[in-house]
């Protein structure tokens, strides 16, 4: 075997690769970069020499033919077929007391190796998320007594295992044992693997673009631009453990970004939120449907829409499924929902915005009052929050260890907090920061206002989740129903937003179902009611009688991000799309 005589070149240490990542993340100043580079080179050389010394010392007395030669190396079909017939294929999370002393086969990523002298290598194996276990490859000596069926593990095998590049995908055969003491660094802490065979199925490069240690730290910077660090930043980082990286570095190293347990926990919560949304609405009689992404008219008004040539006309990417939710109600459905992409051509470089996000949308018939819609949306969101608490406690805890956050305060059932827009503004004027003394009831809230309101509500009502109802007419789109009871000179709508930790996560309300009223509002808002798409939209309400209805749109990315108090919504998306970032 090639490995026997030509062991792989020593791998870069985690620290070196981490330093590479720091440089990527920070874009060092010239002086700091040179200094760091020289230091890294010196350390790499030192590590290489040490490895060479161990290699010479450890192999000089060994027989020419490695007796363990078929138990390690790059995987081949023959080697993979050599696993013992009685070894059980297991996943790390399924290992239990019943496996102690038994042979198992695991396929996992090797996340770390550590040599202890020449006779023992510790290897950490990780499956999805943070499911990791400690493995030990310990030399048994080369001579084998006759009739001894125990596998031989040579020092060469130990050395080889200890030099596998981190993040290679491997398969091992091992006996499950109890460690002397729980292995604190691994989630599977009560068991360890005594490895007898180890094969690399897919090798990682010697140097990773971003180490796992860096990938699993809090992202430091969300700008789409490379940011120059302050003088001495690298030295400071070096002192405080593995360096963190910017969002750009994370996205440029998408595989390591996605492999990090913290990102996988965020993704798991995202999946759970979708299930919880779907389950709750299905239980309440809602039917799922798929609105189109390619549409012929901007559904949220003319601005902020991606336009593209479409044969001999223009098409747009849907800014929301608004029209289509309403068409479903007009088309004889009483309650509908959809989960799908929403596109906004906004040059908004904020932690709250992306050019593509996932909308959780619903629409329903109103029997008596649009507060039926508000209650349903409160219900589904509280079901989501409580569901995360119940089903994702381990993920939340893991995420909090990287992105610390305060416990989310939720209202007791029946004690949900609903303020009117005017009440919210009054609260801000009277009890909010000085700069909000003059906020008006007829103007939309700014983001700092929303955050200040969130803090006031938390303080006063002990909840991080609440609704603000009756938004002023000027702050809502043309399909929002104006409250017939509002003052003509201060019109408000039957429309609301919902907030989580002081940030908007939902917009909803009653829609106009009467075609004449709708046409008048569209005209009032400065949109031509005869323009393409709009004419057809109004026409739908003329085709047959449409019941009063309302609904809402929830931003999935924001629900996940603000529930977890992440610094940016970009962390909650699988592949965040921003004005400057379309790849990967
Ligand atoms: P904002 O004022 O924060 O830009 P909006 O009022 O334009 O949001 P809506 O059109 O009401 O938002 O969309 C419904 C929901 O979709 C919002 O409450 C939010 O959760 C989410 N959302 C809206 N725009 C974005 C975006 N650009 N990126 C991520 N989520 C968004």
Shape category: elongated
Strand order, biggest sheet? 8-12-13-18-17-16-15-14
Number of helices: 18
CATH superfamily of the largest domain: Bira Bifunctional Protein, Domain 2
Regions with little confidence, pLDDT below 50 for 5+ residues: 1-28
Helix content: 25-40%
Number of domains: 3
Broad structural category:
alpha+beta
Count of extended strands: 18
- Give the overall average pLDDT: 88
Strand content: 15-25%
Task: Report what the structure shows.
The protein is of the alpha+beta class. The protein folds into 3 domains: 125 residues, Nucleic acid-binding proteins (OB fold (Dihydrolipoamide Acetyltransferase, E2P)), CATH 2.40.50.140; 25 residues, no CATH class; 310 residues, Bira Bifunctional Protein, Domain 2 (BirA Bifunctional Protein, domain 2, 2-Layer Sandwich). Helices cover 34% and strands 21% of the residues. The protein contains 18 helices and 18 strands. Strand 4 and strand 5 form a beta hairpin. The two termini are 38 Å apart. It binds adenosine-5'-triphosphate. Adenosine-5'-triphosphate (ATP) binds next to strand 17, strand 18 and helix 18. One of its GO terms (biological process) is aspartyl-tRNA aminoacylation. This is Probable aspartate--tRNA ligase, cytoplasmic. Belongs to the class-II aminoacyl-tRNA synthetase family. Type 2 subfamily. GO terms for molecular function: aspartate-tRNA ligase activity; ATP binding; RNA binding.
